Amino acid sequence: MTIVVNDPQAAEFGRAVSQFAQDIHITDQPVDRQAWKRAGALGLTGLEIPAAFGGSTGATYAWNAAAVDALATISHGLSSTFTISFDIATPYLVALGTPEVHQRWLPPLALGEVIAALALTEPGAGSDLAALTTRAEPNGDHYSITGSKTFITNGSIADVIVVAARTSPQAGARGISLFAVDANAAGLTRRRISTIGQSDCDTAELFFDQVEVPLSHLLGTLDEGFLHLMERLPQERITSSIANLAQADVAMNLTLAQVRERQAFGRPLGSLQHNAFRIAELDAQRSAVRAHVDACIERLMNKTMSTADGARAKLLSARLENDILDLGMQLHGGSSFLEGTEINQRWIDGRITRIWAGADEIMLHLIAKDLGL
Predict the structure, then answer these.
(1) Name one GO molecular function term (predicted).
(2) Mean of the per-residue pLDDT values for the chain?
(3) End of a domain among 69, 85, 115?
(4) Per-residue pLDDT, 58
(5) What is the rounded distance in angstroms from the CA atom of residue 240 to the CA atom of residue 307?
(6) Which terminus of the chain is less hemmed in, N or C, by CB atoms within 10 Å?
């Protein structure tokens, strides 16, 4: 990424994160608490936290980008579990939290002693966030939250969860608010769910049965949670795009190694024109998508990136990643279907990228809207 290459400190940090990721990654196992504390000591978990609360001093989003690229190169699941905490959920607490929320959660988050999650998706409301039904009702000095969430990254291991809940039943998107919820609160039940990919990343269902949340743990303005989400989801999409491109790079390298070595009809598989042209085409697309993502990172840092910019980056990077992985599977032949091979695992891990952080169809809708359609 150009932005990282042009920031020597970010590039150096990325190398440190890469070594850390190699040291702590265990296939099929979520990251343990000791590794989270190591991430805190490295400065990874404090990237979005002000220095006054123990966060990183002088770090820009270029550092986030370098870290995400390093993590996803080792494992997409590893990237998912860390980024949902330090890059996606934590900024809501920083930007929208009260002094009480800041004092309680930010210092341990920076140290890696606490893990964060973002709970938006429900069994009946995924891409259509305005349809969520989890409700938060005021009751004296607290809100009472009732409902359920699903497909929540870090859901069963998080200590603090940013929860979207309905506070005005008849107001649609304008009746949603955000809350910082203690994951150990009475009435909150969590259950880890099994997924076909990214098994090194925790995913869970959450059930809220009149969970009490202090009034001071409302994030931002009452009934304006949807607006707060729309303001911050573009960063999540750029972060996802960076991870997608890292996966695309790994998949391309695996595929190139395969077609240079494997023989078919007495010659390397990559020398067959159809294969060579298809790989070349995807490589050209990779360069174009990378240029757009680089531009988006610059705009994000300058606060000039539009919702449509982020949607284009997310859409194109996820499709590119999956196209390269699919071609890699094809060119690896029967060995690609063997459990445990790297191309197989990357292919399984990558499929979700066209669904989460905004499905392809939602990205297309946002782009069409930007075009006035």
Answers:
(1) acyl-CoA dehydrogenase activity
(2) 95
(3) 115
(4) 77
(5) 14
(6) C
Give the whole-angstrom CA distance, residue 228 versus residue 206: 22
Q: What's the CA gap between 311 and 313, in Å, rounded?
A: 5
**Alpha carbon separation from 77 to 73, 91, 132, 197, 334 (Å, rounded):** 10, 21, 26, 8, 25
Q: Which tokens is 225 given?
A: 């949670």
CB of 217 closer than 8 Å to CB of 161: no
Instruction: Of 136, 116, 112, 132, give the one whose Cα is nearest residue 124.
Output: 132
Write the CATH number for 124. 2.40.110.10
* Predicted TM-score (pTM) above 0.90: yes
Residue 99's domain spans which residues?
Answer: 2-115
Which one-letter amino acid corresponds to residue 286?
R
For residue 163, give the H/E element and its range.
strand 160-166
At 4, the pLDDT band (50, 70, 90 cuts) reads low
Look up residue 190 and give its two tokens: 């969590």
Looking at the structure, tell me whether residues 129 and 263 fall in a common domain: no
| Catalytic pick among 205, 212, 236, 321 | 236
**Residue listed under structure tokens 């203690």:** 182
DSSP H or E segment with residue 276:
helix 273-301
Closest alpha carbon to 13 in 53, 52, 71: 71
Radius of gyration in angstroms for the set of CA atoms belonging to the chain, rounded to a whole number: 21
Domain count along the chain: 3
The one-letter amino acid code at 353 reads T
Tens of pLDDT along 73-112? 999 999 999 999 999 999 999 999 999 999 999 999 999 9
All residues at 6 or more sequence positions from 25 whose CB lies less than 8 Å from its CB, including other chains:
74, 75, 78, 200
- Residue 362: other Cβ atoms inside 10 A: 18
Q: Is 100 a catalytic residue?
A: no
pLDDT at 126 (0 to 100): 78
Q: Give the CA dihedral 352, 150, 88, 154, nearest 10 degrees.
A: -90
The CATH number of whichever domain residue 77 belongs to comes to 1.10.540.10
Of the residues 197, 222, 247, the one at which a domain ends: 222
